From TrEMBL:
Taxonomic lineage of the native organism: Bacteria, Pseudomonadati, Bacteroidota, Cytophagia, Cytophagales
Protein name: DUF4133 domain-containing protein
Assigned keywords, A-Z: Membrane, Transmembrane, Transmembrane helix
InterPro entries found in the cross-reference section: DUF4133 (IPR025407)
Species the sequence originates in: Rudanella paleaurantiibacter
Pfam families (UniProt xref): DUF4133
């Protein structure tokens, strides 16, 4: 079995993938891909060897992608990237009332 718990204050690491977000995404991708493979087999009549060969091939590609992302961005890399996308690129202020309010709040603190 794989050694998951590596000690206190250390993130879980499974097969070189650090952080629970990456592990959850890889597990969800594996389950979703398995469902797609079953649909291809039963609805379209693709042979099992070809369907599961494609399943393993795509799963290996996803594993290498997630392992590379995990190594590059660290344990919480997915959340950091998602947070950067949600931040506005430019903040437009068209009224000087914002600056007056800011001046009032800083004057009260001093």
């Amino acid at each position: 079995m794989f050694k998951v718990n590596k000690g206190i204050d250390r993130p879980p690491e499974v097969l070189g993938i650090r952080g629970m977000d990456f592990i959850y995404y890889l597990a969800g991708a594996a389950v979703g891909l398995l469902l797609v493979t079953c649909v291809l087999m039963f609805l379209f009549g693709i042979p099992a060897k070809i369907a599961f060969g494609g399943y393993i091939l795509v799963l290996l590609v996803l594993y290498t992608l997630f392992a590379r992302l995990s190594q590059q961005y660290g344990e919480r890399g997915i959340n950091k990237q998602r947070g950067r996308k949600q931040q506005p690129g430019v903040v437009l202020v068209r009224d000087s009332a914002v600056y007056r309010q800011l001046r009032k709040t800083t004057a009260r603190r001093a």
